Amino acid sequence: MNYGSGWVVIEGKYPRTSNALVSIIAPRRSPQFVAQYIEQLYVDRYASIRERLNYKKSPTNFPYRTKIWLYSGVMHCG
Known about the structure:
Blueprint: E1 7-12, E2 19-25, H1 31-46, H2 49-57, E3 67-68, E4 75-76
Antiparallel strand pairs: 1-2, 3-4
């Protein structure tokens, strides 16, 4: 089946070898939008209340920024 292109967001945890599909985002969204979406998912799932408030106040100072690999399109957060 070919459904076209898109951004596929997968959650992987280190000791486990299985990955979980989190979301599929339309291909017309920018890489910056997808990076911000991934950061928000990470904050919502794993950050403490204080870290969430700090992220809302200043997202650019959050220690777990999304890393975007230049040529492959792979992003990593956390």
